[in-house]
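User: quick one
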Amino acid sequence: MKSYRKELWFETKTRRAFINITPQVEAALRESGIKEGLLLCNAMHITASVFINDDESGLHHDFETWLEKLAPEKPYEQYRHNGFEDNADAHLKRTIMGREVVVAVTNGQLDLGPWEQIFYGEFDGKRRKRVLIKIIGD
Amino acid sequence: MKSYRKELWFETKTRRAFINITPQVEAALRESGIKEGLLLCNAMHITASVFINDDESGLHHDFETWLEKLAPEKPYEQYRHNGFEDNADAHLKRTIMGREVVVAVTNGQLDLGPWEQIFYGEFDGKRRKRVLIKIIGD
Amino acid sequence: MKSYRKELWFETKTRRAFINITPQVEAALRESGIKEGLLLCNAMHITASVFINDDESGLHHDFETWLEKLAPEKPYEQYRHNGFEDNADAHLKRTIMGREVVVAVTNGQLDLGPWEQIFYGEFDGKRRKRVLIKIIGD
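Assistant: Done. Structure below.
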């Protein structure tokens, strides 16, 4: 069994952002040389997400509006976590979007459906944060 | 290390549906011959879900009502994604329910708790869509 | 390829609870002897969750309040699942929090970010319930 590990680093200019990381994940898979297996891709921070959905700007706007409705950023004082922090909403938003994805590796490719794209979801940005890619297989 | 891949196809008659796919996943595991490992089962479409919960019709009705409250289908024009589409709500509902499950394989069986059943969750049906099963192990 | 399986058992005194299980998961990894691979940790019950977030009591209070807003426990009769049960809300809350996490294993350690901690989330407690740890790798 082979394994491969790679970190991706991000520092978004805005508090919230969605970044399509499919090309970087594909590059990591090529570097691994693994042809059959499973690929884990997870946020290493608890106010960020890795998720799979559509690369369509209207939908990303809908996600932003919807997450703000389900877990509003403000007023900050509604959350007990916000004593020294202001990012409680980011923990909740990331919970909705999920920490990680697991993707099948088949014939050396990400085995994704036709519209599946992998995204980094940032909910408390403007600082350096990481995503982990771990691949195991043969 | 062995690996096995199988697709399941669906075409629901209704826009939304929950289908218990545990028997099909068990069949794929038997076909694989894998005794110890991990099984990934994921929707290949971004308006559908694979999730684990109870096979109880009252609960499924509760899920439908609850998801409509959290991410209503209508009015369609509330979502920017719905320019040429009407399925923005399906992307959001699937986000709540999740894209995938990973299940342990032990002694050649799905290592599930007493009430765990695997479901395909359709939120934009009436067309052919796929689920991927990928199993790795020995 | 090696594999290792362990169950953790819980019986919370309250209906809802969050328990940091990172030390137990680390112990299972040490017992496995696996140095490189993937670790699955999942609730075996459909009214409980395994999730990763911050070990901060203010945030846990925020989760409790937020989940009660999104999927209130009462009135019980709002849910069809609650014919013989009163735990429909627990199925919904666990859906938000997630069933499982998959964690990379690197150099014999859980490959977690700086604040990532693994939690058992109980939403229908006061009875014995289980978490499954399954590790595969070399």
